[in-house]
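Dear support,

We are seeing what looks like truncated structure output for some complexes. This example has two components. We would appreciate it if you could run it in full and send us the complete token output so we can diff it against ours.
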Amino acid sequence: MNNIIVGKAFVLGDNIDTDQIIPAEHLVYSLTDPEERKKYGHYAFSGVPPAEAGLPVGNTAFIEGEKTESEFSIIIGGTNFGCGSSREHAPFALKEAGAQVILAESYARIFYRNSVDGGFIIPFEATEKLNDKIKTGDKIKVNIDDCKIINETSGESFSLRPLGDVLPIIEAGGLFEYARKADMIKK
Amino acid sequence: MGMTITEKIFAKASGKDKVIPGESVWLDVDVLLTHDVCGPPTIGIWENEFGKEAKIWDKDKLVIFPDHYIFTKNHHANRNIEILREFAKKHDLPNYYDVGTDRYKGVCHIALAEEGFNLPGTVLFGTDSHTCTSGAFGMFATGVGNTDAAFILGTGKIWEKVPESMKFIFNGEMPEYLTAKDLILQILGDITTDGATYRSMEFDGEAVYSLDMWERMTLCNMAIEGGGMNGIIAADKITEEFVKARSNKPYEIFKSDSDAVYHSVREYDVSKLAPVVAKPHSPDNRASIDEVKNSKITKCYIGSCTGGKITDFRFAAPIFYGREAKVPTFIVPGSTDVDRQLNTEMYKDKTLKEVFADAGCIIAESSCAACLGGPADTIGRSEDGDYVVSTTNRNFPGRMGSKNAGVYLASAKTVAASAVSGVLADPREFI
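Here is the complete output from our reference environment:
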């Protein structure tokens, strides 16, 4: 696992539900076919109302035009990120789009589990509200070992809560890899 | 120190005498549920991780209901059903309910109850957030994603954190205008959409035990809208009667100890509650019907795991009887059993289906349909500028189709009153 992640921030509001992350009509594509799965990257965050996409200004596309990857790899959310349906396609879509980490105050349970157990993206809990302090496009450096974020654009730094129980699963790269290491399933 | 029902089920399923909220345990799973949206990717992960010769941990415990995208020309959606069909055939699955056959059921959470898979004291995991619906049977039921489901498919086990429990007590006698949907919307307005995150929501009180199983399911169904891990109601005589009519499998009834520890306890007197709605764009955006009546609407929708049960249509029929729907109104029976009941159950001189048809409603086949938008050709899907009043469970932007539409969540009585009024309306004026 890479312990330092650096990238541009994409900032969203509170209660970003899974229909905003990947609208239900797109859940029909294969998650294994190498070409088809790119559609998930293309449609990531396509359900966010434009005025609320890329705060504080808004009207910022997460994915430009026909692209399947985003220029933003650090997602900044608020409270209850990933609420709503159980679709694992949501953290999958963010990974396909090139996002590596989410920094939010809190997460909905199923989204959090899916992010961790699927090994798609790291859902860090911030110790304070970040989506009114970080701006879309800011350059963010996340230090996983120290649970610290530095906003290299503004010079501010923030703390993250330790990953706790789920750290070994994240470090292993997902639930299956973790279970193999722990001899719970065959290697 | 005593334990709650949920803690007792966790202890039993993890082989422990006692569990404490916050600890992570491995649970033995009694039933795994999946459907056409999350089944194919779950199968993909399972085959990839356990190999092509992988064995399902217990075929009798896997239940697959295709229900989400059924009546569509969408090639990719139909391909997903084909994948399920092939998988069921290859593994000779006893509990696959295929589209286009007499076995087709419709919405998985309703079908689970109808087919006798819900048993007190058991553990159900499903690849759908509304799996919590089954908690109405005094069992632990919760949603997971594809990776967790694939892990269960191969091992029969999954890790889970023991949740703290919140208790919601409803006292008093249910007024005729009030339904379980009003009760859960009332709670959501109080606790908000993350008020129960990672917690169990336990429902109790004489008003809850006065409800039939379908209405209890509505209450538990929307626990996830408060972020809850599960909703749960201790099993009683009504539960046992329902279960015994549909299953001969053993079950165990757990009740919370009087000295069990709760995160919080809230009490309500149902005789003082008014019908409520959740305004766009969040299930916690509660308003009493008095605050919003006469608001503009363009569509009405009665359906889904939340509001497409026989009880919901019984609530709606007397209001539609002899009246006309003034906006396009969609009737989507939650299951094929519900559909059949609409053809046989009478209100006065008409079957329920005749009541709806004579009122000008559009009656669709059983499936999840427009509750979650679905492919472009899904019946009832919301369009730009729509204001929908719906018995479904979520009204986040774009949930029922267009992200430039608004959805009011309400009971079947409020939806019916609104449909025949052409504006948001108070069901008390029709009862």
